[in-house]
Amino acid sequence: MNIRTRIDFGQLRERARWCAYAAGRRLGVSGIVAVAVVAAVPVAYACYLNPETERLDAERAAARKALAAMQKPGAAQNAHGMTLRDVQKLRVREQAYSVFELLEQNGIVRKHATYRHEIEAKGKLRRLTIDIAASGPYAGLREALRAIADQPMARVESVALERDRIDTAQLEINLRVSLLGPDA
């Protein structure tokens, strides 16, 4: 028989026990705790932390890919790549009427509106800012705002909502919309 097969495991166990006892006497309780922590750190890193890091890196890459595929916020689908000439062809008065029609189609009742004209782009364009006081349900306002934001060269600048009583679904709405074009 080979010498390796004749090892007495009982003797090996007794030697390990004696070495642990001698190390415990030299290191003390705090030394043994420190050695256990130092020995556990590489094991914890290899078993738990490194695979978690790889998983998070994979999730981050997938999220970046999905984010890159999404449409940029605030850019209306019809307004991509509009030049100054394209904007000058827009009819702002028709856009203003369509804003009021969109509000009406979604159940928003207009109380009154004020208009302000400003010159933009060194006199080549004009901005029409409309302040609208209205009332209506929240769901209708949400749909109207989406439709207004999809119009080319239209911007919802501010929305203020107020509800008189908690038991009513009607909102008091103050809305500011800006339209950019040649004839504002």
What does this structure look like?
- This is Type II secretion system (T2SS), protein M subtype b.
- The chain crosses the membrane at residues 27-45.
- α3 (92-105) runs antiparallel to α4.
- 50% of the residues lie in helices and 25% in strands.
- The N and C termini lie far apart (104 Å).
- The protein has helices at 9-69, 84-88, 92-105, 138-149; strands at residues 109-120, 125-137, 154-162, 170-181.
- The model is unreliable at 74-80 (pLDDT under 50).
- The protein is built from four helices and four strands; from the N terminus they run αααββαββ.
- It has a four-stranded antiparallel β-sheet.
- It is elongated.
- The protein is of the alpha+beta class.
The rounded distance between the terminal residues' Cα atoms is 104 Å
- The tally of helices reads 4
Label the overall shape. elongated
Main pleated sheet: 4 strands, antiparallel
- The portion of residues forming beta strands comes to 25-35%
Percent range of helical residues = 40-55%
Helix-and-strand structural type? alpha+beta
Order of helices and strands: HHHEEHEE
Whole-number radius of gyration?
A: 36 Å
Tell me, rounded to a whole number, the average pLDDT. 82
Order of neighbouring strands in the sheet with most strands: 1-2-4-3
Uncertain stretches of 5 or more adjacent residues: 74-80
> How many beta strands in the DSSP annotation?
4
Keywords: Membrane, Transmembrane, Transmembrane helix
Protein name: Type II secretion system (T2SS), protein M subtype b
Transmembrane segments: 27-45
